[in-house]
Design brief:
InterPro entries: GNL1-like (IPR043358), GTP-bd (IPR006073), P-loop_NTPase (IPR027417). Pfam families: MMR_HSR1 (PF01926). The protein has about 550 residues and is an alpha/beta fold. About 35% of the residues lie in helices and about 5% in strands. The strands form two sheets. A six-stranded mixed beta sheet has the order 3-2-1-6-8-7, with helices on both faces. It is globular and about 80 Å long. The chain starts with 8 loop residues before the first helix and ends in a 13-residue tail after the last helix. About 5% of the residues have low confidence.
């Protein structure tokens, strides 16, 4: 028997580092090692099981496809990570919080030309004679050019902010989607759809409808009808959501954009019998539900948009051709009748859109459409899948509090002639710092590289130390100093004013106090686990377990 190879910690760390790089997509996986089957002496090898190899290949293909659709983002520089940790430890929080912090920053509305130079990548034109590799090569070239230009604009923006506000001010870089496969999902959904529902989190609606998305949607031909849907109304309250809805109607009055509000969940009734599961095994305490008032508003907006799509432009009644299905039973849609579920690779889904065809391919697909297609698009964690489940009144697609749960666009039928297409969430390019994106729940908390800076920003708008009822704890260094029993020379005097005046908080002190309150201590050093505390706090804020929401901007 061969000698067992000793364990090498260095090789193990290198292997784990390589696996993480392959999972992120930074490097390509190594070629598979040839399969070797060890034969026991005196025992013939077992015959292969029919179909097992094919099942293994199919599983590998599914895993590879899921990995290709994972979101990819940039990485902040090590200097910024060190600076953000230092500021979180030394900079005292401003208390009380000024009333202006509760309003959405007006500079993020991008009312001037600044901020409107960012765009979303547009799919290049293609012809039927082109092969799949040719189409993908063109898309990769266009995307690489767009990504290079966008990176240059963001680098210039960060440089200007450092010059105007100083080295220690401002926030981190802005995140946006780097994976071409995810952008291809948006291209397919916008190509298939006649009406687009753009979902906006009611806590900060302007953040979820940046100028880059507005420019991209205006370039679609033929033009799609847009409906802005305010989600999570139950988090901010009906009064605040109605204020944002009226503000959006005034802002986009001349563009024919409709605005509606929705709620996607309701609390379950408590179990009636002792046999029903209790406690943690009882499942979720909410269930998909769309109140009749909100369903009527949404169906009314869709019906009005459908009527406009059927109406020919003035002066073109004779030569104009309707490109959408004319007959739709909107009463059945409002009653919530839906039963058919189709896979994304439906034959009708392969019908190419007019705007992506060259002149040679026009006129080859003039058959009237079989369905009215409604697409749902938006950033991660705005509630697209939750709204779909609420429309059906039961879970039909997977929904999660973690951003990026949906990986591939999904096709369902709300009625025999109405098709819904759910697009995966995309982090859209916008001149917004990473901290605000994390606060809004756009970014996955587990992948945030700079939790101290995100907590610092959240503490600028929310008194988390009061919400969690924390007791101010001294820093770890002071506790270690007091715990020493022997001293050489004079015992040092603790400076109680270090890190701020008595009663002032820093972001790191909030993390330490929360960790101590939960009993989270690191195993080796015995210090408060600030990483786990920051993760828990950001999840509570982003997942709306702590209700919050920006008010209308000043002016």
């Amino acid at each position: 028997m061969p000698r067992r190879k000793p364990t090498s910690l260095t090789a193990k760390k290198a292997s784990q580092k390589q696996k993480r790089a392959i999972k992120r997509g930074d490097t390509s996986p190594p070629p598979p090692a040839p399969a070797q089957r060890r034969k026991r002496p005196g025992h013939p090898s077992r015959p292969p099981v029919p179909g097992r190899a094919r099942e293994e290949r199919e599983d590998d293909a599914v895993k590879l496809a899921a990995r290709r659709l994972e979101s990819r983002f940039l990485k902040p520089s090590p200097s910024y990570l060190a600076l953000s940790a230092e500021r979180a430890s030394t900079r005292p929080l401003r208390r009380p919080i000024p009333p202006s912090a509760a309003r959405f920053p007006r500079e993020l509305l991008f009312e001037d030309e600044h901020g409107r130079d960012l765009t979303c990548p547009k799919r290049p034109k293609w012809r039927y004679e082109m092969t799949k590799k040719e189409v993908e090569r063109n898309e990769e070239g266009v995307f690489a050019k767009w990504k290079s230009e966008t990176e240059g604009r963001f680098a210039q923006w960060l440089e200007q902010e450092r010059e105007s506000e100083g080295e220690g001010a401002g926030g981190g870089p802005s995140y946006y989607e780097w994976n071409l496969e995810v952008w291809r999902q948006l291209w397919r959904v916008t190509e298939l759809s006649d009406i687009l529902l753009i979902l906006l989190d009611a806590r900060c609606p302007p953040l979820h409808y940046p100028p880059s998305l507005q420019v991209f949607l205006k370039q679609l031909r033929p033009a799609r009808k847009l409906v802005l849907v305010l989600t999570k109304v139950d988090v901010v309250g009906h009064a605040r959501a109605e204020e944002w809805a009226q503000w959006l109607r005034e802002r986009y009055r001349g563009e024919g954009v409709r605005v509606v509000m929705v709620e996607a969940y309701r609390h379950k009734a408590p179990p009636s019998t002792a046999e029903e599961p209790q406690g943690k095994r009882a499942g979720r305490r909410v269930e998909p539900f769309l109140p009749s008032e909100f369903r009527s508003q949404l169906v009314r907006a869709l019906r009005e948009a459908h009527e406009e799509l059927k109406t020919p432009p003035a002066g073109e009644e004779g030569k104009w051709k309707c490109r959408v299905r004319r007959d739709v039973d909107w009463e059945a849609v409002e009653r919530g009748l839906g039963g058919k579920v189709h896979q994304p690779e439906h034959r009708e889904a392969e019908r190419p859109p007019p705007e992506n065809l060259d002149e040679e391919g026009e006129g080859e697909h003039d058959a009237p459409p079989e369905y009215l297609t409604i697409g749902l698009i938006g950033q991660p964690n705005v509630g697209k899948s939750s709204l779909l489940n609420a429309l059906f009144g039961r879970p039909r697609v997977r929904a999660s509090r973690t951003p990026g749960k949906t990986k591939h666009f999904q096709t369902l039928f709300l009625a025999p002639e109405v098709r819904l297409v759910d697009c995966p969430g995309l982090v859209l390019p916008s001149y917004v710092h990473m901290e605000l994106q994390a606060l809004a729940g756009v970014l996955p908390i587990a992948q945030l590289p700079s939790l101290p800076s995100c907590i610092s920003y959240a503490l600028q708008v929310l008194p988390l130390e009061r919400i969690f009822k924390l007791e101010r704890a001294e820093s770890v260094e002071k506790r270690e100093l007091e715990a020493k029993k022997t001293w050489r020379g004079e015992r040092p005097v603790l400076d109680r004013e270090e890190g701020g005046r008595e009663g002032e908080w820093t972001a790191m002190q909030v993390l330490e106090s929360y960790a101590l309150a939960k009993g989270w201590i690191t195993a080796k050093a015995g210090r408060p686990d600030v990483g786990r505390a920051g993760n828990a706090i950001m999840r509570a804020v982003a997942e709306a377990r702590i209700p919050w929401g920006f008010g209308l901007p000043n002016g």
